[in-house]
Amino acid sequence: MRGRRRRARSVRTPRGRCAPRPRFPPEQPVLIQVHACGVNPVETYIRSGNYARKPALPYTPGSDVAGVIECVGEHVTAFKKGDRVFTTGTISGGYADYAVAAANRVFPLSDKLDFRQGAAIGIPYFTAYRALFQKGRAKAGESVLVHGASGGVGIATCQIARACGLKVLGTAGTEEGMNIVLRNGAHQAFNHREANYIDKVKEHTGMEGVDIIIEMLSNVNLATDLQLLSYGGRVMVVGSRGPIEINPRDTMSKESSIIGVSLFLETEEERHECATALLDGIEAGWLKPIVGSEYPLEKVVKAHEDIIHSSGARGKMVLVP
Predict the structure, then answer these.
(1) Measured distance CA(212)–CA(145) in Å, rounded
(2) Which of 99, 80, 106 is nearest to 36 (CA)?
């Protein structure tokens, strides 16, 4: 495969110079001209060096690319030059004008969605589906509470859960965020900045509690989550920024579960299952990514600061090269 990869935001070597570009594996590569790239909190963790999964250097962040195929490897048959696509992972990094991805991480982007929306699918929607069904065993008729529902993963979870027949509750930190949550599938929204919002959730759910909680900030909410669960309820740990102390007896009293979710551990079969469901959702019209803040590639540092320290999420953050 031939193709030129231009600007990229890479981790610098200790001497301050950009290291040589990595060599790409020959098996079924696809070169994509990037029109938009999603920004995810995990990329800030990896960049900081404090994440369990440490990539080889030089490291260019970015998994969720949307763009147009420039060229493909000789064994790639599913795609061709000019196809609109989105990815769930890249080999070379998505914070760039061009990105290389393995063909099994590339999916067709429907004309129903623009490139910014395409860049909002990868990690958010695949994580949401995995948390709900592959790990959370969600069933139609059950209730789900989405903590931090106005962000990329939260909106994805609300849309998927509503389409699959669950009763959806969501939290957000602003009035605007709550409205976004309600417009994207939630039956009820709560402001998690209010001191008594937990009491409001308990009042709404009554004695039954919540069957599943999708938790984006476990280091803050996990102990309280255990108080909100139904018998046999599950907390799905999607995100955490530190430790928290809990009482294990709170899991015993309801035989509830705390289950970690990591998209990096999905199998090829699980990825195919998820992709099939989501592509069907796009065609059916219920999968509609909400794009929030947009940044030019040159402002990626600002984007990383804002995704961690913003006062309230409002859709998926994207870079536009």
Answers:
(1) 6
(2) 99
The pLDDT tens digits for 90-147 are 999 999 999 999 999 999 999 999 999 999 999 999 999 999 999 999 999 999 999 9
Q: How many Cβ atoms are within 10 Å of 173's Cβ, its own excluded?
A: 18
* Bridge pairing between strands 210-215 and 188-191: unpaired
pTM, two decimals, is 0.90
Q: How does pLDDT run across 18-77, given as a tens digit for each residue? A: 333 444 455 689 999 999 999 999 999 898 888 888 888 899 999 999 999 999 999 999
Q: Which domains does the chain have, with CATH numbers?
A: 29-120+289-319 (3.90.180.10), 124-265 (3.40.50.720)
